[in-house]
TrEMBL record:
Transmembrane segments: 6-29
Keyword annotations: Membrane, Transmembrane, Transmembrane helix
This protein's record includes keyword Transmembrane helix: yes
Taxonomic lineage from the root: Bacteria, Pseudomonadati, Pseudomonadota, Alphaproteobacteria, Rhodobacterales
Gene3D superfamilies on file: PAS domain
Stated name of the protein: Diguanylate cyclase
Keyword Membrane in record: yes
Matches recorded under InterPro entries: PAS, PAS-like_dom_sf
Highest taxon of the lineage: Bacteria
Domain PAS intervals: 157-225, 268-335, 398-464
Length: 539
């Protein structure tokens, strides 16, 4: 045989041996995953479950080679199961992710060949359990893993208890607007409004009827119960799901409505009260816009009600006051206005208080108080009358002091309450008083004079005048003769006031032109500090 033929035979023999070897290897190697469509009816007759912990397959049923490759890779089993089941049912990848991340149980239905396939997933403590099963075509039933079924039932019970114990009303309506499901809060309200038989018929009574196809959103609705009491609810309607069902929820607004009514009544009461206040009131909100004012503000500022109703800013309000000459003109008006507009920087307490002397002669006491929410309350009080009265009082007091200083006699003036309100230098010299003055009250003076003069009934009479023991007919001038411990004689002239005041005039008897008798000359009224007026004879 030639060498060429030998070579051909050698090559042919090697090829045949290689084919036989490859066939043997393929026969002995683990067979790949079966086709699901061919084996579904036989292999899924019993449920198959897989238990994962932290993405690792820790337990699985027998005969799962049609779902996972053999040998099973426990690290890749999670993703491999998702890929295989994703061909059977929709939403497998998202359901697995929600179960792993949020512990959300699921049940998905798919079709494989002639069988309906059910895929269920639940979380049990740290483990995740996946169950794959097929329904029996003959009996139209579904075989499920008992542990998975119990977990799903526990989740269902938990959700049911949660929906029944929530105070929020929840219900589901179909595409025609009929109520097909409701929680316990809805049922309780239905019985209160429609009676105890409201839940016996079908469909369920609709407390908040709406037209079919009504848009989703938030609305306010009210219901009236069998007693005629009205309740308000905030209705939140969700868009319809693929099956046409709409989930609706309602929150009670009774407390909110009551609070709004109380606030409205309170504001009305404040408005009526502010309307009669003589103090001008302007309240600016957190944006420094005028939110409320009273009629006194218009009277005091001369601002028009229509302009105030346009809610001017605080700075514009000050500008208007300046134009109407209702505020003093500072050196730097802009800096003054900007500083006053931010009352939080006025002082540590954030309160502004100042007296405005206007070019018109009026005097306003202006108080600004910031509020916690950023609002500002500005109050204007006209104190012109008080300022004029204070000035008149000061003028009368200065006149009294001038009259006492110009008199030749030593004079002391007491008010109706027995308080010393005036004394001249002659009295200080004669009665040996200090420059600081005499004792504050008549009783204290009488105690001091007992040490200066010999006993005299005049002291008791003076107490009677101050105490009001004398009748109106007894309120006449009289004189008393006093003798000091040095033997010097001093004439005391007592002039009771009609309002209870008292004027005492002391004159030594050795002075020329001494007249100790009561005078018949008319008396001149001299105002004392306070509201009392005392009478002093013109000497």
């Amino acid at each position: 045989m030639s060498s060429t033929a030998l070579t051909i035979l050698a090559l042919l023999g090697g090829s045949i041996a290689g084919v036989l070897s490859l066939t043997l290897v393929l026969w002995l190697a683990p067979r790949a995953r079966h086709d699901l469509r061919a084996a579904a009816h036989e292999t899924l007759a019993e449920p198959r479950h897989f238990t994962f912990r932290d993405g690792y397959l820790i337990e699985n049923s027998e005969n799962v080679g049609f779902l996972l490759s053999t040998p099973i890779d426990h690290l890749k089993a999670w993703s491999e199961l998702i890929d295989v089941l994703g061909d059977i049912a929709d939403g497998v990848e998202q359901a697995f992710r929600d179960l792993r991340d949020a512990g959300r149980s699921f049940r998905l239905d798919g079709v494989l060949g002639r069988d309906r396939i059910s895929i269920m997933g639940v979380r049990q403590d740290e483990d995740i359990r996946i169950t794959v099963s097929a329904s029996e075509t003959a009996q139209t039933t579904l075989r499920v893993d008992l542990a998975s079924l119990e977990a799903l039932q526990a989740d269902t019970d938990l959700l049911t208890r949660s929906s029944d114990t929530t105070p929020t009303l929840s219900w589901v309506v179909d595409g025609t607007g009929r109520v097909i499901w409701a929680n316990a809060a809805y049922c309780t309200l239905a019985e209160r409004c429609a009676g105890p038989d409201a839940l016996r018929g079908w469909p369920m009574v609709s407390l908040f009827p709406e037209q079919a196809g009504a848009p989703a959103g938030v609305t306010r609705r009210q219901v009236i119960d069998s007693k005629g009491e009205t309740s308000w609810y905030e209705i939140t309607s969700q868009p319809a799901d693929p099956s046409g069902m709409r989930h609706v929820h309602a929150i009670s607004l009774d407390a909110v409505i009551a609070a709004e009514d109380n606030l409205r009544t309170f504001i009305q009461t404040l408005t009526k009260t502010f309307a009669y206040l003589p103090t001008g009131l302007a309240i600016f909100d957190r944006e420094k816009s005028l939110a409320m004012f009273n009629p006194a503000l218009m009277d005091m500022t001369g601002l028009d009600a229509s302009w105030l109703s346009r809610r001017p800013k605080l700075t514009d309000f000050f500008d208007a006051l300046r134009d109407h000459r209702k505020l003093p003109e500072p050196r730097d008006y802009k800096a003054w206005r900007d500083g006053l507009s931010d009352l939080s920087r006025v002082d540590a307490g954030g309160t502004y208080r100042e007296t405005w002397t206007l070019p018109t002669g009026q005097t306003y006491c202006v108080t600004g108080r910031p509020q916690a929410d950023g609002a500002v309350a500005l109050m204007l009080e006209d104190i012109s009358a008080d300022v004029h009265a204070s000035r008149a009082h000061r003028d009368e007091r200065d006149a009294l002091r001038a009259a006492l200083s110009a008199a030749d006699e030593a004079i002391i003036v007491f008010s109706a309450s027995g308080t010393c309100v005036g004394v001249n230098d002659q009295a200080r010299d004669l009665l040996k008083l200090s420059q600081d003055g005499i004792p504050d009250t008549l009783d204290a003076c009488l105690v001091a004079w007992r040490d200066l003069f010999r006993p005299s009934p005049a002291w008791g009479d003076l107490r009677g005048v101050v105490a009001g023991d004398l009748q109106d007919g007894d309120l006449v001038d009289w004189t008393e003769t006093l003798v000091d411990h040095d033997g010097r004689t001093i004439t005391l002239r007592v002039i009771p006031g009609k309002t209870g005041g008292l004027t005492l005039c002391f004159r030594p008897t050795d002075l020329p032109n001494q007249d100790t008798a009561p005078t018949d000359r008319p008396a001149t009224t001299i105002a004392a500090p306070g509201t009392e007026r005392v009478e002093q004879a013109v000497l």
